[in-house]
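Quick start: read one record
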Amino acid sequence: MFSEFKDFAMKGNLVDMSVAFVMGAAFNKVSSSFIDGIVMPPISLLTGGDLEGSIVLKKGVDAVMENGKELAAAVPEIAIKYGAFLSSTINFIVVAFVMFLIVRAINNMKKAEPAPAPDGPSASESLLGEIRDLLKK
Protein backbone atom coordinates (compact mmCIF):
# COMPACT_ATOMS: atom_id res chain seq x y z
CA MET A 1 0.00 0.00 0.00
CA PHE A 2 2.88 2.38 0.80
CA SER A 3 4.56 1.76 -2.56
CA GLU A 4 1.24 2.35 -4.33
CA PHE A 5 0.86 5.68 -2.51
CA LYS A 6 4.47 6.57 -3.36
CA ASP A 7 3.81 5.87 -7.06
CA PHE A 8 0.71 8.05 -6.89
CA ALA A 9 2.44 10.90 -5.08
CA MET A 10 5.44 10.92 -7.39
CA LYS A 11 3.50 11.15 -10.64
CA GLY A 12 4.71 14.12 -12.64
CA ASN A 13 1.33 15.85 -12.80
CA LEU A 14 0.76 15.74 -9.05
CA VAL A 15 4.21 17.08 -8.21
CA ASP A 16 3.92 19.79 -10.88
CA MET A 17 0.51 20.79 -9.56
CA SER A 18 1.83 20.99 -6.00
CA VAL A 19 4.73 23.22 -7.06
CA ALA A 20 2.35 25.41 -9.06
CA PHE A 21 0.03 25.75 -6.06
CA VAL A 22 2.85 26.88 -3.76
CA MET A 23 4.22 29.27 -6.38
CA GLY A 24 0.73 30.66 -6.99
CA ALA A 25 0.25 31.38 -3.30
CA ALA A 26 3.62 33.14 -3.14
CA PHE A 27 2.86 35.08 -6.33
CA ASN A 28 -0.48 36.16 -4.85
CA LYS A 29 1.35 37.73 -1.89
CA VAL A 30 3.79 39.50 -4.22
CA SER A 31 1.03 40.82 -6.47
CA SER A 32 -1.08 41.96 -3.49
CA SER A 33 1.89 43.83 -2.11
CA PHE A 34 2.56 45.37 -5.52
CA ILE A 35 -1.06 46.48 -5.97
CA ASP A 36 -1.52 47.80 -2.42
CA GLY A 37 1.88 49.48 -2.13
CA ILE A 38 2.68 50.70 -5.64
CA VAL A 39 -0.43 50.81 -7.84
CA MET A 40 -3.13 52.01 -5.44
CA PRO A 41 -1.35 55.13 -4.06
CA PRO A 42 -1.01 56.81 -7.50
CA ILE A 43 -4.62 55.89 -8.34
CA SER A 44 -5.72 57.47 -5.05
CA LEU A 45 -3.68 60.56 -5.92
CA LEU A 46 -5.21 60.77 -9.41
CA THR A 47 -8.77 60.39 -8.17
CA GLY A 48 -8.22 62.88 -5.36
CA GLY A 49 -9.44 60.58 -2.64
CA ASP A 50 -8.46 57.73 -0.41
CA LEU A 51 -9.39 54.53 -2.25
CA GLU A 52 -8.69 52.48 0.85
CA GLY A 53 -11.61 54.24 2.50
CA SER A 54 -15.24 53.32 2.67
CA ILE A 55 -18.71 54.77 2.55
CA VAL A 56 -20.17 54.67 6.06
CA LEU A 57 -23.83 53.72 6.05
CA LYS A 58 -24.26 53.65 9.81
CA LYS A 59 -21.74 54.83 12.39
CA GLY A 60 -20.67 52.41 15.05
CA VAL A 61 -21.24 53.03 18.72
CA ASP A 62 -18.79 52.15 21.48
CA ALA A 63 -20.02 50.28 24.50
CA VAL A 64 -21.32 52.54 27.26
CA MET A 65 -19.75 51.72 30.62
CA GLU A 66 -20.59 53.07 34.06
CA ASN A 67 -18.97 51.94 37.30
CA GLY A 68 -17.45 48.96 35.47
CA LYS A 69 -20.84 47.78 34.22
CA GLU A 70 -21.83 47.75 30.57
CA LEU A 71 -25.02 49.79 30.08
CA ALA A 72 -25.17 49.53 26.26
CA ALA A 73 -23.50 47.06 23.94
CA ALA A 74 -21.11 48.16 21.19
CA VAL A 75 -22.57 48.41 17.69
CA PRO A 76 -20.12 47.90 14.81
CA GLU A 77 -19.89 50.34 11.93
CA ILE A 78 -21.70 49.38 8.72
CA ALA A 79 -19.77 50.50 5.66
CA ILE A 80 -19.23 49.78 1.97
CA LYS A 81 -15.50 49.14 1.52
CA TYR A 82 -15.06 50.05 -2.13
CA GLY A 83 -11.29 50.47 -1.82
CA ALA A 84 -10.72 46.86 -0.81
CA PHE A 85 -12.95 45.69 -3.67
CA LEU A 86 -11.12 47.85 -6.21
CA SER A 87 -7.75 46.64 -4.92
CA SER A 88 -8.85 43.00 -5.15
CA THR A 89 -10.20 43.53 -8.66
CA ILE A 90 -6.93 45.08 -9.87
CA ASN A 91 -5.02 42.27 -8.14
CA PHE A 92 -7.13 39.66 -9.96
CA ILE A 93 -6.57 41.34 -13.33
CA VAL A 94 -2.80 41.45 -12.77
CA VAL A 95 -2.66 37.78 -11.70
CA ALA A 96 -4.87 36.69 -14.61
CA PHE A 97 -2.74 38.63 -17.11
CA VAL A 98 0.51 37.17 -15.77
CA MET A 99 -0.96 33.64 -15.89
CA PHE A 100 -2.05 34.31 -19.49
CA LEU A 101 1.50 35.37 -20.39
CA ILE A 102 2.97 32.27 -18.73
CA VAL A 103 0.59 29.88 -20.49
CA ARG A 104 1.19 31.66 -23.80
CA ALA A 105 4.97 31.39 -23.38
CA ILE A 106 4.72 27.70 -22.54
CA ASN A 107 2.52 27.06 -25.56
CA ASN A 108 4.98 28.92 -27.81
CA MET A 109 7.88 26.85 -26.43
CA LYS A 110 6.18 23.57 -27.26
CA LYS A 111 7.30 22.13 -30.57
CA ALA A 112 4.56 21.71 -33.12
CA GLU A 113 3.93 18.02 -33.52
CA PRO A 114 3.88 16.88 -37.14
CA ALA A 115 0.57 15.63 -38.44
CA PRO A 116 0.34 11.86 -38.35
CA ALA A 117 0.99 10.18 -41.67
CA PRO A 118 -2.21 9.01 -43.31
CA ASP A 119 -2.78 5.32 -43.17
CA GLY A 120 -3.08 3.33 -46.37
CA PRO A 121 -6.44 3.07 -48.05
CA SER A 122 -9.15 1.18 -46.23
CA ALA A 123 -10.44 -2.16 -47.51
CA SER A 124 -13.43 -0.57 -49.21
CA GLU A 125 -11.26 2.13 -50.83
CA SER A 126 -8.82 -0.45 -52.20
CA LEU A 127 -11.74 -2.54 -53.52
CA LEU A 128 -13.18 0.54 -55.23
CA GLY A 129 -9.73 1.28 -56.68
CA GLU A 130 -9.55 -2.26 -58.12
CA ILE A 131 -13.02 -1.86 -59.63
CA ARG A 132 -11.98 1.47 -61.16
CA ASP A 133 -8.86 -0.10 -62.63
CA LEU A 134 -10.87 -2.99 -64.09
CA LEU A 135 -13.36 -0.57 -65.64
CA LYS A 136 -10.54 1.39 -67.28
CA LYS A 137 -9.45 -1.73 -69.21
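Helices lie at 2-9, 12-47, 82-109, 123-136.
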